[in-house]
Write a structure and sequence with these properties.
The termini are far apart. The strands form 2 sheets. A 5-stranded mixed sheet has the order 3-2-1-4-5, with helices on both faces. It has a 5-stranded mixed sheet with strand order 8-7-6-9-10, with helices on both faces. The protein has 2 domains: about 1-95 and about 190-220, 2-Layer Sandwich (Nucleotidyltransferase, domain 5); about 105-185, 2-Layer Sandwich (Nucleotidyltransferase, domain 5). The chain has 8 helices and 10 strands. By secondary structure, the protein is an alpha/beta fold.
Length: about 240
């Protein structure tokens, strides 16, 4: 099964072509360039260099959230556009689950964290047996205090991954929690994890049509929060 996966949920941007869980090729960029300029050309060049047409692809997958509102819209829109033309099924993948899959070879508890600002992180928790991952907590936006309390109760060492790893490490070490960070080459999102999560969805019959592929933001945008605040003031 050939899977084309796209990841643009944060600063890094990548596209990956896999045959089941075997990576055929991956393009990755973390240069600060806008994903609207890089992601779709990246995917098109990836297929071209591999001698694979879009018609040969069985599944189009995208990291659907949480993450940057703009980045998620770009990635989901690109995946929808590629899939819709040839009626390809899609996989709507949790950004956090995809990050955990990248560390599946490390036995233990995996704690993906993305900086959500305002003293919060986007987070989920997983365990790995060295081959596959199992979800321990849902995707959510959670305060550092609340997450630290949860990990303290859990009492197990945690492997931190994601652009919020350094933030959480600095805070949690001061609290005496048993945490460690993966090195930078494994720390940030990449499209292979998206493809691996998509493979499970395909095997379990959970793929969706392109028309149903939408982002999962997990939190209101700043504009929406400001609008609600203004409406509340008017109501008072």
């Amino acid at each position: 099964m050939k899977i084309l996966a796209l990841e643009s949920s944060a600063l890094a941007c990548s596209a990956c072509l896999c045959e089941d869980d075997f990576p055929i090729a991956q393009f990755y960029e973390n240069s600060g360039m806008t994903h609207s300029k890089t992601l779709l050309p990246m995917a098109e060049e990836l297929l071209k260099h591999c001698g694979v047409s879009l018609g040969d692809v069985d599944v189009v997958a995208a990291a659907a959230g949480p993450g940057s509102f703009t980045g998620l819209r770009i990635g989901v829109s690109a995946a929808k556009g590629l899939a819709w033309a040839l009626d390809k099924p899609c996989a709507k993948v949790s950004t956090l689950e995809a990050m955990a899959w990248n560390l599946a070879a490390l036995p233990g508890q995996i704690c993906p964290v993305m900086d959500a600002r305002r003293s919060q992180v986007y987070n989920a928790r997983f365990s790995s047996d060295g081959e596959a991952i199992r979800r321990l907590a849902p995707d959510r936006a959670i305060g550092l205090e609340e997450l630290a309390a949860e990990l303290e109760t859990e009492g197990q060492p945690q492997i931190l991954v994601g652009d919020g790893a350094q933030l959480c490490y600095n805070d949690f070490i001061k609290r005496g929690l048993k945490v460690r960070m993966v090195p930078p080459n494994l720390r940030f999102q990449n499209a292979w994890g998206v493809a691996r999560a998509a493979l499970d969805q395909a095997r379990e019959g959970r793929l969706i049509p392109a028309s149903e592929l939408t982002p999962d933001y997990h939190r209101l945008s700043q504009a929406e929060r400001e609008r609600l605040a203004r409406d509340k003031e008017k109501g008072e």
